Structure formats: structure tokens, C-alpha cells
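Most newcomers find our protein records easier to grasp once they have seen one. Nothing more is needed to start thinking about how sequence determines fold. Here is such a record, shown just as it appears in the course material:
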Amino acid sequence: MPCPTLRRPTALALALALLLPAAGVPAQSRPETLPQMGSSAATLITPADEARYGQMVLRELRRQDLLLDDPLVEGWLKGVGFRVAAASGEPDHGFTFFMLRDRRINAFATLGGLVGMNAGLVLTAEREDEVAGVLAHEVAHVTQRHVLRSVEKAQQAQLPAMLAMIGVIAAAARSDSASADDAVQAAVVGGQALVAQMQIDYTRSNESEADRIGIDTLHRAGFDPLGIADFFGRMERASRGNSGGWQVPEYLRSHPVTTTRVAEARDRAEALLRQRRPAPSLREGDGHLLLPAALRPAAATPVPASDDFPWARERLRVLSATSPREALAEYEQAAEDGAGPARRYGHALALMRVGRAAEAARLLEDLLESQPKHLWLRLAAAEASHRAGRPREASDRFEALVADYPQHRAVTLAYAEVLNERGDAASGRRAQQLLRPLLAAAPADLQLQQRFARASELAGDANRAIEAHAEAAFLSGRAEDALKQLDGLKQRDDVDYVQRARIEARMAEIMPVVLEMRRIGLRPQDQGRGRNAGP
């Protein structure tokens, strides 16, 4: 039997090893901004590193084919998100709102101002105020630096846990009883439990703070502050009704909802509704808050929810389905009698995706009779005309849309896709003409780069096509592929001085990303396996 005194130091080393990794995040020696709320969390990472981290996360999400890149849905989500962010305590923070195709109910916020939402959450919501409420909650997590503060808290939790463990281990080392080793193991488990409980408590405090600030932000943004309470209430009822193996919504795992939490959210929202609605500029820290109520600026009136929510929800229903046929089955299994316009719009999209464009076109024509100016209907009708083999009609519809909505991202991308599918040089040049202004303003837009690459190929501009393909590869998470394409392009004799200088500068920007991917062991053949992989 091994000597106990030889085993106990090993157990102590194990205990320390189990606890210390969480404290391994180095603190920056040069803080960029003053820490918030007495926390030094802002010293853990610089704003520039946060931005780089955010872009890396987006590229990785695209590489794994998790993002739902749809211009209309993205435009709607950003409209709601930025309206909420503008009423937050840090409207200039810099936010990126994006949709994931996952149908599980979830949303999250992380470094770099990234706020992600699953399609399933929008499909579950009954009104736009509920979606805005969840976004306000996540925006509060960002503005309050909860991610950084949780890392900081985890570091601070190590010392009391280790002291408690060391005390138990020292006592066991002085004992010759057979239970000494059990005491060491109990200390390890107890220390881990202490750290876990402290982190859980801190998470609960984060959630409470995000609820309070999020409801206030929602109210200032002109949404119904009861939106977040209503959504939480639905999640809480789903949790209580969990039986027979039904899976708890993913949102409840990262955002635990209790009856008390729902009641507190509802009480706060109702208290705000009883008060005079504040102007959007009255954020915490504004001097107006110190003025008597009679001297404050005129109150803002509630802003009605956008008309796009039901249309965005049905579009998401189609785009997030496991297959086009599954999407169509969802509509065909439901009673069509009495279905609203948005529901019939979704049905038309599903028909189009399974190759029944003529039927989709007829359904959309009926809808357009009552809403002839509706953008989403007009765009779907133009696409249906193209899919049904009526190119002249499709061109007329698209050109009318371009005239009414110049440089509109969704209109431009849809028309460019149709032009590229026609496959002739004239269509390629027209697509280039449409895409250039948007690409100049948003060079990091994957879909613009993809469409422009194909349009340039059709127009005979091979060098510009390669450059756009390389940029699309990088934005899709294939940094090494992008670097190789740019290096090959740089070697061509027909590349002019300006383009070569641009290529070399871009290669210098991409190289650190390539080196980091190599360092973590991500091989080129592991990259770009999703539908956004590109050529």
C-alpha cells in the first residue's frame, strides 16, 4: 500500500490544477477606459481586441454554416436592434445583430458588441415587442460588461476556494486515519462546488441587472416594456409544463426564468407604464434626470411596432426549415382558410423553393392586389417571375424596385443574383453597376462580395473577380484559401500597380489570421464546409 504522505501532495496539486485554469486570463497592463461600476473588467481586453474577437466569431459562425444570411430578415433585425441600442446607456458602443438558423429558442451576447438570436426565438414570439425585449436584455449584458465581469469574478473566486481546500488538505495530512484521502477528495469537490456556486450567484445578479436595465431601455425605445415580461412568462410556463421527456428551451439554460423573476419584470414594466414616458435622450447620467419633471423635455410618444415582424417570422419559418420540402409541409399541413397575408407570403416562398414558382407567382399576385407597394411582396413576385421563366417580367419588376429603392441591400442582392444566373456579359455588367456603390460602403459584406465576384467573371473582369472571391473566402472563415488566391493574383502580369498595392495590403491584414488559425490547429481542409464556402 503506497504511503499516504506521498499521495497527499499529488492530491493538492490536482486540487490547484482544477481551480487555477479559470484564472488564466491575463490582465492588460494598459486599460483603455475607466472600469464600470467599480470593476476592473475593462482592463482584461482592449476595445481593439474586442472588435477583432467579434469578427473572428462571425467568420467562425459562417464557416460552420450557422448564420442565416438573409438581407430582408437581417434588415428587420438590425432595425429593431439598433432602435433598442440607441436608447441604451451606450448607444455608441458598436453593436452587431445577427440571426442564427437554429430553431431552438435562444439568444446571447458576447464580446465586441455581438448579439445573436436564434430563428426559433422569433418563431416563438407573438409580437415584435417580445423580440425587442430579448434584444434589450442582451444589449444590457454588453453595456454592463457582464462577459468581462464574469471572467474577473471567476478569478477572484479562486482564492477563498483554494484557502478552504488547503485547510482541509492540511488537516487530512496531519491525520493517520484511513479517511484522510477521502477528505482530500472531498476538499477538491467542495472547492469546485464553491466556485461553481459563486459563479451561479454572479450569473443571477447579471440576469437581474440585465432585466432591470433592459426593461428601462425597452421603454425608452418606445416599445411596450411588458414585452420582455410576456416572453419570460411564456418560457417559465414552458418550463413548468416540461414532462414526458420534452426538452427545456435552450434559452432557459442560459437565462434561468422563475416565477419571481417574471413577476419582478412585470412589476417594473407596469410601473414604467404608469409613469410619464421619458424622452429617448433621458438616459442614466443625463443632466435632465436632475431637473424637476415639469422642466424636463417633452415626453416621447410610443413608437408602434414595425409592420415587418409577421413577414420576417414567416420568412424565417421557410429559411430555417431543415429542407425546402419540410418548409412547404409546414404550410400545407396547416389550414389555409383564414390565413393572414404574412402566412400566405411564407407559403409562396416555400412553393418557390421547391420549384413551383408559377404557383408562388399566382399567390403573390393575389396578395399584391391589396398591398401593391409592399416591398417584401414585390421582391418575392420579381423572384417568382424569374423562377417561372418570365425574364422580361422579372426585369421590369426588378428595375421598378431599383428605381423606388435605390441602393437597397436586399433589392440589389436579389437582382444581382438573378442577373448572374442569366449568365451573359451584359447581365454581369449590370450586376456590377448595381453592386459597386454598396460594396464600396461595406467591403466586409460576404453576400456583396460573392455576387460581385460572379458578376465580374461574366463581365470579363477576371482580376477583380479573383479579388472578390478571395475576400468572400476570408469572410467565410477560409483565411488560408483567401491568402493563396491573393498571392496567385499578385503574380499575374496584367495586375496594375494600384490593384497590386491593394492586394499586398490585404494580404498583410489576413496573414495574422492565418497564423492564428495554424496555431490553434485549424487546417485549410477543415475550413469552409458550410453552404457559405464559396468557390
